[in-house]
Specification:
Elements: E1 7-9, H1 23-32, E2 35-41, H2 45-57, E3 61-65, H3 77-86, E4 92-101, H4 109-126, E5 130-135, H5 138-151, E6 171-174, H6 180-189, E7 191-195, H7 205-213, E8 219-221, H8 243-254, H9 258-273, E9 284-287, E10 290-293, E11 313-314, E12 317-318, H10 327-334, E13 343-345, H11 355-367, E14 372-376, H12 380-384, H13 389-392, E15 398-402, H14 408-415, H15 421-435, E16 438-444, H16 451-462, E17 465-469
Parallel strand pairs: 1-2, 2-3, 3-4, 4-5, 5-6, 6-7, 7-8, 10-13, 13-14, 14-15, 15-16, 16-17
Antiparallel strand pairs: 9-10, 11-12
Helix pairs in contact: 2-3, 8-9, 10-11
Length: about 475
């Protein structure tokens, strides 16, 4: 494989007749372009059989079986029974492509609705995720999905441990055509979103807005080959090898690196479809042009929105370490810190729990000319039973504090901690402003949190910079 990145194309119709003349060459070009795995969704029963046969012959190819809304008129009881039977095939990882298409209406709308509902029931019965097609039908599709979930609340519940604070992964809305508000509704139900080459089109304002306004963790890569080839191949037959162009556009919209996009979307495909493997745990990890240090997964708080006890994965990096690293291990992994914009102490735990190790690593980074930032819940003084800020001066260049809310009682509920810690956090932040200078304070974008009140506290009383971040 020539590319340093491993992409997963979660939607490519390799069994389409457009590939009959050179399918093997298409697969070789995909491998050369860094495409690790390809998911081939079906459009009808015959195509579902072909998808399974192709996946049997090629280890990198997986199959989804289903009846596309264009073919919904063919979804009689015999056809649906065969789709259900094919779900048992060992290379089948999803039911799809199913859904509604009210743009072309190649099948009557009532037939589309019946086929969609029936195949959602099959997916629930087989406990498989779904690949959903919507065009000019997002509201009706959402209504049907919500009704389906009410009838089968246990669908995919085993995909995550019961203590997870995230919804179980249930499927993907491919070639997503809705707005940001609807996107977050779907995410809240356990669905991912994906975009093919349309994301690269100059006039694709809505898809680009959504791809910018949703966390990368909820997005997948797809080509929808042989359709909608991305720029610069627009107008040509599309194929999985072109996926890099989609990934590059997504990286631009997310203000992340191409490596971040490849890694995160590959993990998303693993999480949803079981494709690939879970990445190993890491002490250090890169995001954009910064290196992050994962010193511990221990924390004195237990935030309602934190998933450190279950997945502890951020943009494809597994932070669920089985032991805590020594300072010299971390320093070796950092190498030359000037290669990075900054070295950030930030894992799924509270870094100041290991204050001595933090300081030793920061000292080594500063000695080599690197910049440092501490991401913290602001409880370091309580944890260490002293004012630790003077010990950070000269070692830490910037501090990010999890404010979460300006209401002390709500703070206690959100962080599952005694509300008295709110005052300790504010005092720590003020001391950091005085002694270190650059202090950012963040809240999670929850509807019950008064963001304006939090902003006023940060900017007027504490003197820091106010930042919001998505719920998940």
């Amino acid at each position: 494989m020539n590319e340093p990145y491993a992409f997963v194309d979660t939607h490519a119709h390799l069994t389409s007749r457009e590939f009959d003349a050179d399918r093997e060459e298409v697969l070789r070009r995909a491998e050369d372009a860094g495409v690790r795995s390809i998911l081939n969704p079906a459009t009808d029963v015959e195509d579902a059989r072909r998808a399974c046969e192709l996946a049997e012959r090629h280890p990198a190819v997986y199959a989804a079986v289903g009846i596309h809304p264009h073919r919904a008129a063919t979804a009689d009881q015999t056809a649906l029974a065969e789709i259900e039977s094919l779900c048992a095939h060992p290379r089948v990882v999803a039911v799809g492509e199913i859904g509604l298409d009210f743009h072309y209406n190649l099948s009557p709308r009532d037939a589309q609705v019946r086929a969609f509902e029936a195949q959602l029931e099959i997916a629930q019965k087989k406990d498989l995720p779904v690949i959903i097609h919507t065009r000019d039908s997002i509201e009706e599709s959402l209504r049907i999905v919500e009704e389906s979930l009410r009838r089968a609340p246990g669908w995919r519940a085993g995909a995550l441990p019961p203590e997870s604070r995230h919804p179980a992964p249930k499927g993907v809305f491919h070639c997503y055509s809705g707005d940001v508000r609807t996107a977050w509704k779907l995410i809240g139900l356990g669905f991912s979103l994906s975009f093919p080459g349309i994301l690269t089109f100059k006039n694709a304002h809505l898809p680009q807005e959504v791809a910018s306004g949703v966390s990368l963790e909820h997005l997948l890569l797809e080509t929808d080959s042989p359709y909608m080839a991305p720029v610069p191949n627009r107008g040509k037959r599309n194929e999985p090898a072109f996926i890099r162009s989609v990934a590059e556009k997504l990286a631009q919209l997310q203000h992340l690196s191409l490596e971040d996009v490849a890694r995160s979307t590959a993990y998303g495909a693993h999480r949803l479809f079981g494709i690939g493997e879970m990445p190993g745990p890491r002490f250090t990890y890169t995001l954009r042009d910064s290196l992050y240090i994962n010193l511990t997964i221990r924390c004195n708080a237990d935030c309602v929105f934190c998933d450190r006890k279950v997945e502890a994965v951020i943009k494809g990096h597994n932070l669920r370490i089985e032991r805590e690293p020594e300072a010299d291990e971390v320093v070796r992994e950092i190498g030359d810190p000037t290669r990075y914009r900054e070295i950030v102490f930030c894992g799924y735990g509270e870094p100041t729990i290991r204050l001595d190790v933090l300081k030793e690593v920061a000292r080594a980074v500063k000695a080599k000319g690197g910049r440092t930032r501490l991401n913290t819940d602001g409880h370091g003084n309580v944890i260490n039973k002293r004012n630790i800020v003077p010990e950070l001066v000269g070692l830490i260049d910037a501090v990010s504090v999890s404010l979460n809310t300006a209401d002390p009682e709500q703070y206690g509920r959100l962080m599952r901690i005694d509300s008295r810690f709110f005052g300790e956090m504010v005092a720590f932040a003020k001391e950091c402003v005085r002694s270190i200078g650059l202090v950012m304070m963040t809240i999670v974008d929850l509807p019950e949190v008064d963001a304006e009140r939090a902003k006023q506290l940060v900017e007027k009383e504490i003197g820091g910079e106010f930042v919001t971040r998505p719920f998940f």
